[in-house]
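User: I'm preparing a small set of examples for a lab meeting where we compare how different chains pack in three dimensions. I only have the primary sequence for this one, and I'd like the structure in token form so I can line it up with the others. Please keep the answer compact; I'll paste it straight into my notes.
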Amino acid sequence: MIKIVDSKSANTPILCMDTIQIESVKKDFDDEKDSSLLVTGGYLGKIKIFKYSSMKLLIQINSHCQLITCLDIDQKHLIIITGSEDTYLNVWQLHFNDTKIDQITLKGSYHLDDQKIVGTQAIL
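Assistant: Understood. Below is the structure token output for the 124-residue chain.
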């Protein structure tokens, strides 16, 4: 078993992660060769987005009230989908301006009665 922990609080394991390759917003990155973001979800219900090459935390979102069990990304539309033990599936839209992540908006939140969500897949 591989245990990955958040570097800011080593006692908080990360449950799921994915990467985004951002070609259109390379100005956000010091290193032109690496425009990847690492997106993680963990025990505290937070989504964290890091610059992949330096592991610098760019954004943190309080997404769920229980642990995030799954995460997927639509690379084309820059959408993050998270599922949680809180029985919600959340869909987040990343917005960029010329130099950085401008904002993240909640596109939808879907509740499944008495169903812990353990897997997601972005098919758009």
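A couple of notes for your slides: The radius of gyration is 14 Å. The first strand starts at residue 4 and ends at 5.

User: Perfect, thanks.
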